[in-house]
Write a structure and sequence with these properties.
The chain is built from 15 helices and 8 strands. By secondary structure, the chain is mainly alpha-helical. The strands form 3 sheets. It has a 3-stranded antiparallel beta sheet, with helices on one face. Strands 4-5-6 form a 3-stranded antiparallel beta sheet. Strands 7-8 form a two-stranded antiparallel sheet. The protein starts with a strand and ends with a helix. 24% of the residues are buried. It holds the Pfam family Phage_integrase.
């Protein structure tokens, strides 16, 4: 059994002894004897339960999260609120109901997409990591249903208006987004060390799916960034000539790289006429637009499919996990099938019938 005692030169009580054949010598982290005795009893009980029932009865969310990060399985983004919420909750007690409650409590005014991204996805990843270590069962979670959004992309003439309407510091960045399909974060934190103008190629080292990828550069992109006055550090700079700030893990609102260029991008959309005006507070007109920085990625993908009809190449260049994720860009190009529909039986007969009617 465990007993508490003190080491020389240490103010803290330690736990020492053997439980179920396991030799233990651990600090209680306290100089209070009464508290140390409570910690000893709890620890002894944990060891006995683990020996009898396995780790599934003692592993907490905090344990699983720490191990998840230690093994490089993820980053700290969105995890701090989850740790504060679940902390010492046993993994076996984190079920669908517990996660649903956490999502509502942590993000009461957020939509399904935000709750999915900031609660369900990271919690699921941590639980799956724990399940691989036999600390809990593999989670089977139902996620919030998200409304199917319309795939917004720009026609070439719209894209040209947007580029011309951009402020000088934003123009090369928007050209880059439109012709590489880069996510906003991949672009605004791109370093010159990953750009090769001679080979007309860029490499995105840190990506959303965790896999580096290289993309050929369109001549317009090469020309655009070749005219930038610097060749080291960040490729794209703010209007003040500074690199864009990295995301702040402590700010819930800082969830998208696009927010770092959102104001300037929206101003460009307004100048380009890509939006509409609605009454605001005090009947002051407010500009609205459905064109965001991420629309540039949709635009590139749609253009690429129009030009090449190759979903596999599009998947590889865009960094999507599966080809199914790029099918929507084929759906956006439904007009390509018009000729085939017109060639179906009776279509031409209908035209002939109309001609006969006109003659008679």
């Amino acid at each position: 059994m465990l007993k508490i005692c003190k080491r020389p030169k240490s103010p803290y009580w330690i736990m020492r002894g053997t439980v179920r054949g396991q030799s233990i010598e651990e600090s209680t982290g306290t100089a209070d004897k009464k508290l140390a005795e409570e910690i000893r009893a709890k620890r002894e009980n944990e060891i006995i339960n683990e020996a009898v029932y396995g780790k599934t009865v003692i592993m907490t969310f905090a344990h699983a999260l720490a191990d998840y990060l230690e093994h490089g399985a993820g980053n700290k983004r969105f995890l701090t609120p989850l740790l504060d919420h679940f902390n010492t909750t046993l993994l076996k007690d984190i079920d669908q109901h517990a996660i649903d409650l956490a999502a509502k409590k942590l993000y009461p005014n957020a939509g399904p997409a935000t709750r999915n991204r900031q609660v369900y996805t990271p919690v699921s990843a941590i639980l799956r990591h724990a399940a691989r270590k036999k600390w809990c069962d593999v989670p089977i979670l139902a996620r919030p249903k998200q409304p199917k959004g319309k795939l917004r992309w720009l026609k070439p003439e719209e894209a040209e208006k947007l580029v011309e309407a951009c402020a000088p510091h934003l123009k090369p960045l928007v050209v880059f987004l439109l012709y590489t399909g880069a996510r906003a974060g991949e672009a605004i934190w791109l370093d010159w060390s990953n750009v090769n103008l001679d080979k007309a190629q860029v490499t995105f080292v840190k990506t959303k799916n965790g896999e580096a990828r290289s993309v050929p550069l369109h001549p317009r992109v090469v020309q655009s960034i070749a005219n930038l006055p610097h060749r080291d550090g960040a490729v794209f700079l703010t209007h003040k000539g500074n690199p864009y700030e990295r995301p702040d893990p402590g700010k819930d609102a800082d969830t998208s790289a696009g927010t770092h260029i959102g104001s300037a991008f929206k101003t460009a959309c307004k100048r380009a006429g890509l939006g509409w005006i609605v009454p605001g507070k005090g009947k002051q007109p407010v500009f609205k637009t459905d064109v965001t920085p991420h629309v540039c990625r949709h635009t590139w993908a749609t253009w690429h499919y129009q030009a090449n009809r190759d979903l596999t190449a599009l998947q590889k260049l865009g960094g999507w996990k599966t080809v199914a994720m790029v099918f929507r860009y084929a759906h956006a190009n439904v007009e390509e099938h018009a000729k085939g529909i017109q060639n179906l039986p009776w279509g031409n007969q209908g035209e002939k019938s109309q001609e006969k009617t006109a003659i008679s």
